Amino acid sequence: MKNRVLPLLLGLLLPLTATAENSTRAAGYTIHHNAIPTATLTPAVATGYSITRSKYRGLLNVSVIKDVQGTTGQPVTAIVKANATNLLGKSRAISMREIREGKAVYYIGEFPIIDRETLTFELEVKPAGMKKPISASLNQQFFVD
């Protein structure tokens, strides 16, 4: 079942390379980052990846691509640390877990959300073999309908 839902999950979670606000380029890597409400996932995708589907839960998705000239890049493993801070300054760590499907490698983490909440996500991404992590950030407002 996972092999059938992977393209759908990637389509929902992985941002387009051209969308600048959803990626960070540094040190020969492109870090794609995206945050969505888990309620937007289909039940099959949520079940297939053990994600709690709810309008009060968010999902952070991060993928790390090593820049390879003449290609779209190569997915690599990394240590990904994520923290979310709301506008009042309340901060919480987000536990990230690795997902591997064929050559694709990405990291997902769930967190609670409330209506009209804006979160700033601070990421520390250390690709395999790198000594220093790459910093990235993302702002996302969530709406609960």
Write a brief caption for the model.
The chain has about 140 residues and is mainly beta. The protein has 2 helices and 10 strands, in the order αββαββββββββ. The chain has a single domain (about 1-140), classed as Immunoglobulin-like.
Instruction: Outline the biggest β-sheet.
Output: 6 strands, antiparallel
CATH class: Mainly Beta
Helix and strand element order: HEEHEEEEEEEE
The CATH topology: Immunoglobulin-like
Principal-axes geometry comes out as: globular
Question: How many beta strands in the DSSP annotation?
Answer: 10
Let me know the CATH homologous superfamily. Domain of unknown function DUF4426
Number of structural domains = 1
What Rg do the Cα atoms give? 15 Å
Q: What number is the mean pLDDT?
A: 87
- What's the architecture, going by CATH? Sandwich
Low-confidence stretches: 1-20
Q: Could you tell me how far the N terminus lies from the C terminus, measured between alpha carbons in angstroms?
A: 30 Å
General description of the model:
The longest helix is centred in the N-terminal third of the chain and has 12 residues, at 2-13. The chain has one domain: Domain of unknown function DUF4426 (Immunoglobulin-like), CATH 2.60.40.3340. Strand 1 and strand 2 form a beta hairpin. The protein has helices at 2-13, 43-48; strands spanning 23-26, 29-37, 57-66, 74-75, 78-86, 91-94, 97-101, 104-112, 117-127, 134-142. The protein is mostly beta strands. Strands 1, 2, 3, 4, 7 and 8 form a six-stranded antiparallel beta sheet that branches. A four-stranded antiparallel beta sheet has the order 6-5-9-10, with no helix packed on it. The radius of gyration is 15 Å and the shape is globular.
